[in-house]
Design brief:
By secondary structure, the chain is mainly alpha-helical. The chain has five helices and five strands; from the N terminus they run αβααββααββ. The chain has helices at residues 14-19, 28-35, 39-47, 65-79, 84-114, and strands spanning 26-27, 54-55, 61-63, 128-131, 134-137. Strands 1-3-2 form a three-stranded antiparallel β-sheet. The protein has a two-stranded antiparallel ribbon with strand order 4-5. It is flat and about 60 Å long. It starts with 13 loop residues before the first helix and ends with a strand.
Length: 140
């Protein structure tokens, strides 16, 4: 689900760290305070393997802004009445859908960049048209 930065401080300046969504800047206590959740809730996300916070040299969990956004979305779903495991699955599926949409958009751009000479001629036997990136059967 997440893409941890395993070496966030390698060659990064303090300003770079502040701009880095994956930099583990928040302790568990601070993350829980920001999100309005308990530390047990954050440990539950770790146990569910939705979030894997980095660890400080002392072994304490450290969270990034990216991870806080994921945790906030799970909290919204739990507050709406979903079970924690179902909420985690929803977030994973939302992330997978967003990635598929990014890939689809990129592929569509590649096709568009090729120009009209790579597209079938009108009336060439193809009875399909594109709508919102999906091919659908034409009616006529």
């Amino acid at each position: 689900m997440q893409h941890p930065n395993t070496h966030p401080a390698d060659g990064a300046s303090a300003a770079d760290k502040l701009d880095d969504d994956t930099y583990p800047a928040y302790s568990m206590g601070r993350a829980a305070e920001i999100l309005g959740v308990t530390q047990a809730f954050l440990r539950g996300l770790d146990a569910a393997r939705l979030l894997t916070p980095q660890r400080s040299d002392g072994g304490h969990r450290r969270y990034s802004r990216y991870q806080l956004r994921i945790a906030a979305r799970v909290r919204e779903l739990v507050d709406a009445g979903n079970a924690l495991d179902a909420s985690c699955r929803i977030v994973i599926l939302e992330d997978q859908l967003a990635e598929a949409q990014r890939i689809n958009t990129g592929l569509q751009r590649e096709l568009d960049d090729r120009g009209d000479d790579s597209r079938p001629e009108q009336g060439s036997g193809s009875n399909r048209r594109k709508t919102n990136g999906y091919a659908v059967a034409g009616h006529g």
